[in-house]
Amino acid sequence: MWDKAVELVSWFLSGPGRNSRIIALFMLILNWKSVPFVWTFRVFSALTCHLVLREYHAHSPDKLFHYSICQSHATLYDIDYNLHKSNSTYFADLDVARIHLAGHLLARGVKALSENSKTKLVLDPRNPTRAAKGSVSVSLGAVHSSFKREIKPYQPYEMWTRVLSWDRKWFYMVSYFVEKGAVKPRSWDAGSFGPTRKTKGKPENWEKKVFATAVSKYVFKIGRLSVHPAIVIGASGLLPERPGGWIVADSCMKHTASSTDAETKDVIQEAEWDWRRTEGERLKGLVHAKHFATLDELTSQFDGGEDGAFGKWSLG
User: Fold this and answer.
1) Would you tell me how many other CB atoms lie within 10 Å of the CB of residue 288?
2) How many angstroms separate the CA atoms of 178 and 200, rounded?
3) CB atoms < 10 A from the CB of 162, how many?
4) Among 93, 58, 86, which Cα is nearest to 216's?
5) For residue range 244-300, what is the model confidence (pLDDT) as tens digits?
6) Angle between helices 275-293 and 250-257 (to 10 degrees)
7) DSSP-derived secondary structure for 54-78
8) What are the structural domains of the chain?
């Protein structure tokens, strides 16, 4: 077995046509994430990493808004005719980055939701004495991206992803595509994943290091029933106790959506991390998320070409 492996490697490196094989292997390594079916592998490896191979993390509420950082680079097949990373390829990277964050943070809550018949985390609204029934799903509702600077061929970058906010239905995450190594966190929650910075506050000129930003929203469901995100977040141990609980009335949610940074500034700066500080961070993010949510209303603008259309062409 070993002899055959050595013979195969020797033929690959020295046999006829070796230059073509070596170049092909080199290109495959440099562009591996663009190879067919590798996206599926990347997604399922992230899920397996956090939901199967590792113990479910027990984070305290002050970690809810921390970043998950993923590293990558722009491959040859990511590049468009302008010789920079194509806008469409950002979304494939976001798929993986979001799974790493959600899998790391919410594994315990999603597991409890999947065992709802036993945990009774969500009750049937038609009969509150029994658990809601149906298959559990976590579905992506929408993504909005804003492109700031180009990513050049093979340029490395990092994706910094964190929880932005949530409302009665949607769980929002924000991702930043950042120049690799340009920004360092103040600390790591567990272990060491690289150097940290000593200065407090935002890194100097960090905005110039951001290639793009993206906001994504997810919905948790049991059958056809949408699950309030606070239920899953709370079951993951990430919400401090709050008088009256976190499932508030619709009118309260509408009020918080109109809050401003100025209204929550004092709450954010409280020294103790209690429910007020978590709510302050949620409101701060919701200021931006609420604008994103209004884009859902664009479906009402579609009129089926009432005044006509130019023509019909193939996408290729």
Assistant:
1) 16
2) 19
3) 18
4) 93
5) 899 864 445 554 444 444 444 455 555 579 999 999 999 999 999 988 878 888 888
6) 80
7) SPPP---GGGTT--EEEEEE--GGG
8) 36-188+204-238 (3.10.129.10)
